[in-house]
């Protein structure tokens, strides 16, 4: 069982930046792909970005060129650098991980609120 703990959310003005972190513990040595998802009020949870253990990345079109996902396998931590934030980026951001042996299994963090407002 993997435990994921997110940090780094908060309130930021449009055009600003935030960096989210997600630390994994438990069976962290068997973690494969990690990612960030978000859920805005009244909407379904959506993919933001994913990164494989070998650091191949995938981004939602809405964040390409503004967000960067990275990971440190030694620290079992994944990051999301968010630049040029806009009000439509406001959401609860969730960290996700999948084990190396079964990508259909998901572990989720508790979520961290990101609010973009002037």
Question: Mean pLDDT, nearest integer?
Answer: 94
Count the helices. How many? Answer: 0
| Helix-strand pattern | EEEEEEEEEEE
Q: Hey, roughly how much beta strand do the residues contain?
A: over 45%
What is the gyration radius calculated from CA atoms? 14 Å
Secondary-structure-derived class: mainly beta
Describe this structure in words.
- By secondary structure, this protein is an all-beta fold.
- The chain contains no helices and eleven strands.
- Strands 2, 4, 5, 6, 9, 10 and 11 form a seven-stranded mixed β-sheet that branches.
- Strand 5 and strand 6 form a beta hairpin.
- The protein is globular, with a radius of gyration of 14 Å.
- It starts with a strand and ends with a strand.
- The relative contact order is 0.32.
- The mean pLDDT is 94.
Observed structural traits:
single chain, 118 residues, mainly beta, seven-stranded mixed sheet, four-stranded antiparallel sheet, 11 strands, 0% helix, 54% strand
Concise overview:
The protein has no helices and eleven strands. The protein is an all-beta fold and 118 residues long.
């Amino acid at each position: 069982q993997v435990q994921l703990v997110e940090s780094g959310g908060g309130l930021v003005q449009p055009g600003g930046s935030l960096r989210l972190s997600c630390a994994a513990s438990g069976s962290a040595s068997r973690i494969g792909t990690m990612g960030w998802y978000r859920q805005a009020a009244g909407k379904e949870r959506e993919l933001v970005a994913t990164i494989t253990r070998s650091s191949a990345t995938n981004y939602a079109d809405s964040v390409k060129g503004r967000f960067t996902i990275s990971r440190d396998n030694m620290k079992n931590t994944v990051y999301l650098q968010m630049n040029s934030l806009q009000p439509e980026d406001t959401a609860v951001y969730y960290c996700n991980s999948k084990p190396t042996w079964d990508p259909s299994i998901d572990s989720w963090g508790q979520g961290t609120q990101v609010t973009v407002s002037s």
